[in-house]
Every structure is written in structure tokens, then in C-alpha cells.
Design a protein that fits this description.
Layout (H helix, E strand, L loop, with lengths): L1 H24 L30 E11 L4 E6 L10 E7 L13 E9 L2 E7 L1
Parallel strand pairs: 3-5
Antiparallel strand pairs: 1-2, 1-4, 2-3, 4-5
């Protein structure tokens, strides 16, 4: 029982120190109103959402174009900047005018960004 009491004291002390450390290092946030953040989608707070998107490039072959939804399916090679292997996947296009460059069977070089859960083609060569 004494051993248990020692553990309980140690845990209480660690908790107290952690709380004091957090309070000390959060000093600049004390009193900050957080009410305006209710319902905010935090993934949109990433640097990518603030116009600092990382542009990725790849080469691929157009497998399918859906002009109605602005989606294109590409069989692309590896994308080193995303640590992706070669695969086939769907991309949105930033500008539907790009769809004219994306015909089934055509080999293309393209640039894309991640926008939330979507991957959006920004340029086609």
C-alpha cells in the first residue's frame, strides 16, 4: 500500500509541474476569446490554406475525363515530393479550361497542390 501511495504522490507532482509549465508557456493566450472558432474547420488553417501551397509535379497518362465534375483520372509515375509510388487516381482541375488539354490516352506533365482532402491540378503541359 505504501508503494501505491508513493506512485500517487509522484503522479500528482508530475501533473502539477506539467500544469504550471503549460500555464507559464501559454501566458500569451490567457484571456483569448475562442468563441469565434466554434465550427471552424481546422484543416483549413494549414499553410496550404493560406496560399502557401506546395506545388508537386508528375508525369502521367490520362485515363478518364469528367468535364461535368471537373475531374480527371491519371495513371501517374512516382511523386517524390509526396512520397507516392506510381498509381492511378482522380484529380480536380483548378480551371475547367485545362480539360481541353486532358484527353484520354494523352501523356502529360502536370503540377498539382493539395487542397484539403483534394488534389488539384494547377498546370498541364
Amino acid at each position: 500500500m505504501k508503494k501505491f501511495a508513493n506512485y500517487a504522490i509522484a503522479i500528482a507532482l508530475i501533473g502539477a509541474h506539467a500544469t504550471a509549465f503549460a500555464d507559464q508557456n501559454m501566458g500569451g493566450m490567457k484571456g483569448m476569446q475562442m468563441d469565434g472558432m466554434k465550427g471552424m474547420q481546422m484543416e483549413k488553417m494549414s499553410p496550404a490554406a493560406e496560399g502557401q501551397e506546395k506545388i508537386h509535379t508528375a508525369k502521367g497518362t490520362v485515363k478518364k475525363v469528367d468535364a461535368k465534375t471537373g475531374m480527371v483520372t491519371l495513371a501517374h509515375g512516382p511523386v517524390k515530393s509526396m512520397n507516392w509510388p506510381a498509381m492511378s487516381m482522380g484529380f480536380k482541375v483548378k480551371d475547367k479550361d485545362q480539360l481541353s488539354k486532358l484527353t484520354e490516352g494523352k501523356s502529360v506533365e502536370f503540377s498539382f497542390v493539395q487542397s484539403g482532402k483534394d488534389y488539384v491540378i494547377t498546370e498541364v503541359k
